[in-house]
Amino acid sequence: MSRLRVYDETNHTPLITLTDHADIARELNAIGVRFEQWEASQPIQPGASQEDVIAAYRSDIDRLMKENGYQAVDVISLKPDHPDRAAFRSKFLNEHTHSEDEVRFFVAGAGQFTLHKNGKVFEVLCEKGDLIGVPDGTRHWFDMSASPYFVAIRLFTNIEGWVASFTGEDIAERFPRMDPHPSAVSAS
């Protein structure tokens, strides 16, 4: 179940916790973040190759690229036994921004985006079927837990793909990290 927790940036006790998708979308839309429920109907499992994932979701990818002008696409597909899981996790854990929108469509498993905006921290647990679009310049970080289990299609307007500008702030260290998702535990 997708979840949003909103914190004051100086306190680790959630101000609100939402699990209804429409409520989450409304709260995130208020800060300019796109959050939608899509149909993730293809039988893709974490660990699937980029080629297989893109082939399975080609029509959705083509539609998004045409509608929004994206120039590049790639896939992150990780499961708990991936040998580089710790390196992948650490790459995204510190607060950073991008010069373009960050768009992710989760087609399996789950991952946690945490956004820092207007003095608040918005922790978004994204699950299969969730599409999130984080506007350029938004401070955020991403966690996949120590036991990653997800497949996310990433879309870029920059043909170089994922390019981050780290803020140097340690705020990400003061907020909860993602616990292993139940789907990761049952897959182990």
User: Helix tally?
Assistant: 5
Using the CA coordinates, give the radius of gyration. Answer: 15 Å
User: How many strand segments?
Assistant: 11
* Helix/strand class: alpha+beta
Low-confidence stretches: none
Order of helical and strand elements: EEHEHHEHEEEEEEEH
Note the main sheet: 9 strands, antiparallel
Q: Looking at the chains present, what oligomeric state does this protein adopt?
A: single chain
DSSP helix fraction: 10-25%
- Approximately what portion of the residues adopt beta-strand conformation? 35-45%
Roughly how many Å apart are the termini? Answer: 20 Å
Q: What's the overall average pLDDT, rounded?
A: 91
Shape call: globular
Folded structure, characterized:
22% of the residues lie in helices and 35% in strands. The two termini are 20 Å apart. The model has no long low-confidence stretch (mean pLDDT 91). Strands 1, 2, 3, 4, 6, 7, 8, 9 and 10 form a 9-stranded antiparallel beta sheet that branches. The chain has a two-stranded antiparallel sheet with strand order 5-11. The protein has 188 residues and is α+β, with helices and mostly antiparallel strands.
Please describe the topology of this protein.
Blueprint: E1 3-8, E2 16-18, H1 21-29, E3 34-37, H2 50-56, H3 58-68, E4 72-78, H4 85-92, E5 96-97, E6 102-117, E7 120-127, E8 130-134, E9 139-143, E10 149-156, E11 165-166, H5 182-187
Features:
188 residues, alpha+beta, nine-stranded antiparallel β-sheet, two-stranded antiparallel ribbon, 11 strands, 35% strand, globular
